[in-house]
Design brief:
Layout lengths: L9 E11 L2 E11 L6 H24 L11 H20 L6 H10 L1 H10 L3
Antiparallel strand pairs: 1-2
Helix pairs in contact: 3-4
Length: 124
């Protein structure tokens, strides 16, 4: 194994605790890292940054665009729609920073003229 992955230094485990009105859940996640044991603060920062990115992307795609509820047939169609959702999400984030993607999507749906503003002001 050392020949295939010469930079592996440690296997680490993170315990995630989540509290909701329904109760508390615990989840363990395992990581293969190239960090020395002394780099614990760096490891914690890296795992938090990873989940920040995951939550920021997937939460918006699932809650705002209901991506997980999609029932597309065919791998190519699903991939193309996923790309279009990400482009749309990024355009919305660029237009009027500070407002949620969900509220912007609602405004764009109600007013086609407002939808044009996102395309005009964020065009490259």
């Amino acid at each position: 194994m050392a020949e295939k992955w010469p930079r592996i230094v440690s296997f680490d485990r993170v315990e995630r605790v989540r509290t909701t009105p329904e109760g508390r859940t615990h989840e363990g996640a395992y990581f293969i890292t190239s960090l020395e044991e002394a780099d614990l603060a760096e490891f914690i920062a890296a795992t938090r940054e990873h989940w920040h990115i995951e939550n920021r992307l997937h939460h918006v795609l699932d809650v705002t665009f209901r991506e997980d509820a999609g029932r597309t047939v065919g791998r190519r169609v699903a991939s193309n729609l996923a790309v279009l959702r990400r482009i749309t999400m990024n355009l919305m984030r660029l237009h009027e920073p500070g407002r949620s993607v969900k509220s912007k999507r609602w405004d764009y749906a109600l007013d086609p003229a407002y939808l044009e503003t996102i395309l005009r002001t964020t065009a490259l």
